[in-house]
């Protein structure tokens, strides 16, 4: 059963649990005004004990660099909790932001959320995420 966790005039964030994955669906615009709400929603789910996420961006009409920034921020949090993240249903426009930023190789992309939940959750899904350098 899908549960709404954020309702804003230009965006809705909801989630459902499917085969051990918390599927977070974003519907609307992801920008400087809405990105922090997504971050807080995922943090709340992490605080509730959820660790393995699919971020479904199939209904994202617009995403800017702040949107990418929030994905980076939630990736760090998920990694700190030894979780995993798959990203699903990304449009070519949104995927271009990942390409331009050089972040495409750091994530696992799936054509749909249904396909993303097929593989078992694994901390190894963030294996390509940049590791902090030790000085």
TrEMBL record:
Organism taxonomic ancestry: Bacteria, Bacillati, Actinomycetota, Actinomycetes, Kitasatosporales
Source organism, top-level taxon: Bacteria
Stated name of the protein: Anti-sigma factor antagonist
STAS domain: residues covered: 11-120
Pfam families xrefs: STAS
PANTHER family xrefs: ANTI-SIGMA FACTOR ANTAGONIST TM_1081-RELATED, ANTI-SIGMA FACTOR ANTAGONIST TM_1081-RELATED-RELATED
InterPro entries, alphabetized: Anti-sigma_ant (IPR003658), STAS_dom (IPR002645), STAS_dom_sf (IPR036513)
CDD domains named among the record's database cross-references: STAS_anti-anti-sigma_factors
Entry-linked PROSITE patterns: STAS
Keyword annotations: Membrane, Transmembrane, Transmembrane helix
Family note: Belongs to the anti-sigma-factor antagonist family.
Positions of transmembrane segments: 53-74
